[in-house]
Amino acid sequence: MLSERFARPRSARPAPTPVLLVLSLAALLGFAAGCGGDEQGDRSAGAVVDVEIPSDVPFDPTQWTTVTDYPALGAPTARRELQDQPFTISWPTFPPTLRTEGPNANLVQTSTVHQLLYEALIQIHPETEEFIPYLASHWRIESDDATGTQVFWFHLNEKARWADGSPVTAVDVYYSWWHRVQEDRNDPSSRITYQEGFEEPEIVDRHTIKVRTKTMNWRLFLYFGTMLIFPAEEIAIPGEEYLRDYNWRFVTGSGPYQLAAEGDVRKGESLIVTRRRDWWAENEPWARNTYNFGKVRFLVIRDEELEYEQFKKGDLDWFIVRRAQQWVEEIPKEAVVKN
């Protein structure tokens, strides 16, 4: 049970009546929030998060861990001229929901989109496989052999901002965990992972949070550190409200893309996300020369042969070769490699 201090805040409005394909596609999009109209999360109408935040603690980076020396994620030669021509990816079906949690939320289609809209505390470098900064600039792991537990500390990059310009804080991290352990989200896998793995996180100050594990397990740092972070004002709401109101719209994100217009979601047909010009991390070392496509379009093509034909015509930019014969006999590999 949550303590009195961190009990779920009251609503400001009356209550109305892990995948390899995802990782590889995210790498292509990244290394090569809400949307307009009814599709956009409206933080001004969200929950009132009334949480006591302790005074800022002096930050001494020498007492923390970070990584600054790693191979660049983006290529300096990457070009961004074709900002109005979307990078098009096919979907076999349209997802049954756009939510990150709840029934039908854990799908390859939506997970790929979520990685473009939201960010976690840390990320894994695709070459070195070490943890590098993301929303958090520094972290620390303390082990307690006597109790068989660990304490993970994360210090947020003070430049981190949501798409609406407001800062990302430790309160958002806290409620991102809280959101996942609520039974009324109807997401037992997420609830078990974050409820059985961790004690209630503690907000140290605006930019610092710590969490104690319930066991000694190396996976737990990965689970908490790579948990996508959402704004507390939007997710600190009852499950019924969350499942209904965010079924076909996205919570505001901090990532490089967002839904820019109401018409960018065409149920059953396509979804388009647009590169933000005001992304807070634009000049962060891990973000330079990444996410170079001005738009990314997810287009429903239910027939594999039709998908292949559209790829050959140039209407698709990403195609998974499923038959070796097709690769050997039909696809012009040299031209693909060069261009």
Q: Cα distance, first to last residue?
A: 56 Å
What is the C-alpha radius of gyration, as a whole number of Å?
A: 21 Å
Question: What is the 3D shape?
Answer: globular
Number of helices: 10
Overall average residue pLDDT? 86
Instruction: Give the uncertain stretches in residue-range form.
Output: 1-23, 32-38
Class inferred from helices and paired strands: alpha+beta
Percentage of residues in helical conformation: 10-25%
Please give the largest β-sheet.
5 strands, mixed
- Tell me the number of strands: 11
> How much strand content do the residues show?
15-25%
What order do the SSEs take from the amino end to the carboxyl end, as H and E? HEHEEEEHHEEHHHEEEEHHH
Task: Provide tags for this entry.
339 residues, globular, 4-stranded antiparallel sheet, alpha+beta, single chain, disordered N terminus, 5-stranded mixed sheet
Please provide a written account of the structure.
A hairpin with a 4-residue loop joins strand 4 and strand 5 (149-156). The longest helix is centred in the N-terminal third of the chain and has 12 residues, at 20-31. This protein has 339 residues and is of the alpha+beta class. It has helices at 20-31, 108-117, 170-180, 188-197, 218-225, 232-235, 239-245, 304-313, 324-329, 333-338, and strands at residues 87-91, 122-124, 131-133, 136-144, 149-156, 202-205, 208-212, 257-258, 265-266, 270-275, 295-300. Helix 1 (20-31) runs parallel beside helix 2. The chain contains 10 helices and 11 strands.
Please outline what is shown here.
The chain has helices at 20-31, 108-117, 170-180, 188-197, 218-225, 232-235, 239-245, 304-313, 324-329, 333-338, and strands at residues 87-91, 122-124, 131-133, 136-144, 149-156, 202-205, 208-212, 257-258, 265-266, 270-275, 295-300.
